[in-house]
Design goal:
0% strand, Na+/H+ antiporter like fold, globular, 314 residues, single chain
């Protein structure tokens, strides 16, 4: 357990430092946004590009990994939408935002550093697959869902909305860092030593700056009045999704242990900021999703530790 605390404590300690900084107004207003932009637009792409150069062996059928993770997401997405509609009595369009919050985790800021610290270089390949596909697939599913649910009041043609999502993803530096890094490695181009050192130095700032910005942003979320929907999102994201992904990736599809561990760890990550951006874009369940980000991130101190302990290498 001491080894798990050694991995988890620095990660959440940096988030706590960011939270205290924002609460005490130690940095100028708007600093969290600037730090987050530096992480996502500059440092994290360099970090991921370089990580893709050192990935280990990929299983003969990586589609099983994709099927396990996104199959679990599909099941939890449907369950969340049904609960939102028939238990919470929310609209079908609200259900799309609630399902997004129940499935979209903070994989880049939290999942990447935790997985690499716990499982080493062998985790780079599954991390690359998830980082490159997660945003793409979930934004498309969410857009399909909410455009279908809002078809009677639609103001933007569906294909135009979907095209906008794809265009945004193609301009996403984090996704492109993984895609370009993978293509670079597959093409056997190699990275010159000077460039590699530059990317290494720049990439070292990715994890701490991202975690610090995340901690600062948590100081702005509010949870008052959101308990019923918040409870559903939390239970789906932090409890059901990791359990379903574990069953599919381990007992059902028999993936290698490190790949199972990475899949379960990413599934157990707290609600990610992209879920809030989606909810805000369509003005659906914004308060509930933002509250879920705050609560699930705090709870992740314990849940992530539990997952790492249970999934630790033998």
């Amino acid at each position: 357990m001491l080894a798990i605390l050694t991995i988890v404590t620095p990660v959440f300690g940096i988030m706590l430092a960011g939270w205290l900084t924002e609460r005490w107004r130690y940095l100028p207003e708007g600093s969290a946004k600037v730090i987050a932009q530096f992480c996502f637009n500059v440092s994290m792409p360099a970090f991921l590009f370089r990580a893709m150069q050192g990935i280990g062996d990929v299983p003969a059928a990586p589609w099983r990994f994709v099927a396990a993770f996104f199959g679990g997401i599909a099941l939890v997405w449907i369950a969340s939408a049904l609960l939102a509609r028939f238990v919470l009595r929310r609209s079908a369009a609200d259900g799309a935002a609630i399902s997004m919050g129940s499935c979209f985790g903070n994989g880049v800021m939290l999942g990447v550093p935790l997985a690499l610290s716990a499982f080493g270089p062998d985790a780079a390949a599954p991390i690359g697959i998830l980082v490159s596909l997660d945003s793409l697939i979930l934004w498309i599913i969410a857009t399909l869902h909410i455009e279908w649910a809002s078809r009677r009041e639609r103001t933007v043609p569906f294909l135009a909305a979907l095209g906008g999502v794809v265009a945004d993803l193609l301009r996403n530096p984090v996704v492109m860092g993984v895609v370009v890094g993978t293509l670079w490695r597959v093409g056997g181009l190699g990275v010159p030593e000077l460039l590699d050192r530059f990317l290494a130095l720049l990439g070292q700032a990715a994890v701490p700056s991202g975690l610090f910005a995340l901690g600062m942003s948590l100081a702005t979320y509010r949870i008052a009045g959101q308990l019923p929907t918040l409870t559903v999102i939390f239970a789906m994201k932090m409890l059901l999704l990791p359990a379903v992904v574990y069953v599919l990736s381990g007992p059902v599809l028999g993936l290698p242990p490190v790949w199972v561990a990475v899949a379960v760890l990413f599934a157990a990550m707290p609600v990610g900021a992209n879920a809030f951006l989606f909810a805000a874009k369509y003005d659906r369940a914004v308060g509930s999703v933002s509250a879920a980000i705050a609560v699930s991130t705090v709870a992740a101190v314990g849940t992530a530790s539990a997952v790492l302990y249970l999934m630790r290498p033998a």
